[in-house]
Amino acid sequence: MNPKVKVVFTVLIILISLSLAGGGFYLYKTETAKNVELEDKIEELSTKQKIAEAKFVEAQRIQITLDEKLKDALAQIEILNTKLTMEQSAKDEALAKMEAMRSDLEAQKDLRLDLEKKLAQAQGDVRSIQDKLTVIDKEKGDLESKVSDLEAKSNVELGKIVVSPETKQTKKSNKATVEKASPAKGEEGKIMVINKEYNFAVINLGSKDGLNVGDQFSIYRSNKFIGDLKIEKLQESMSAAGFVTDGIKDKAKEGDKVIKKS
């Protein structure tokens, strides 16, 4: 082989070798850089993994703590629910008692109003009775004055005359026994005094006129029949007679004619 060719060939081989060596070195450097970069990334990922694992462990610990707190919270909720139920029952009971008290209060108010009404009515009745007593006292005074005048005129002691308003049967005198005289047919007289309180009248006829206890007289005014009287107490010249017919004590008047019934 020509020495020049050999030299050229050798040079080519050297150049190729150098090129290959340079390329290989470049590839090596590149791979080395990549490896370093990968190792850095692996290290970073490892660090991140460790951090993540630490966080996971912390998260597990926190979860356990939260689970315990949740259990405590559920227990507290159960206790509060029980208390709430008890308070609701107590509230319902209190409301029922309040309603009962309100009903009692309304009943008491109605009772108080009714009592006040009855009290006012009673006070009115008392005033009315007092007024009536005043009128009765006046009538009594007038009657006693008239009786006194009659006794003075007739010179006869009539005494106190009391005739029960419910007397329907013949009464006998408890103070004196009067001999029964022969009744005078068609004997006439008149009413001298009327006592509405004790339901009797005083007429101007007595034992000297032949009257007896139990004799009955009819009352007339202008020939109009008013009612009947019955002798309850006798004096010589006058007598007390109870009203036999109901309601005539308000109709009969002093001066009305009385005629003895057969």
Characterization of the model:
- It is a single chain.
- The protein is of the alpha+beta class.
- The chain folds into two domains: 155 residues; 101 residues, Rod shape-determining protein MreC, domain 1 (Thrombin, subunit H, Beta Barrel), CATH 2.40.10.
- Helices cover 58% and strands 15% of the residues.
- It has one helix and six strands; from the N terminus they run H-E-E-E-E-E-E.
- Strands 1-2-5-4-3-6 form a six-stranded antiparallel β-barrel.
- A hairpin with a 2-residue loop joins strand 3 and strand 4.
- The protein starts with a helix and ends with a strand.
- About 12% of the residues have low confidence.
Write the layout of secondary structure elements.
Blueprint: H1 3-154, E1 188-195, E2 200-203, E3 216-221, E4 224-234, E5 239-243, E6 257-260
Antiparallel strand pairs: 1-2, 1-6, 2-5, 3-4, 3-6, 4-5
Number of strands: 6
Question: Order of strands across the biggest sheet?
Answer: 1-2-5-4-3-6
Q: Distance between termini? A: 209 Å
Could you give the order of the helices and strands? HEEEEEE
Percent in helix? 55-70%
SS strand fraction:
5-15%
Largest sheet: 6 strands, antiparallel, barrel
- Total domains: 2
Task: Give the class from helix and strand content and strand pairing.
Answer: alpha+beta
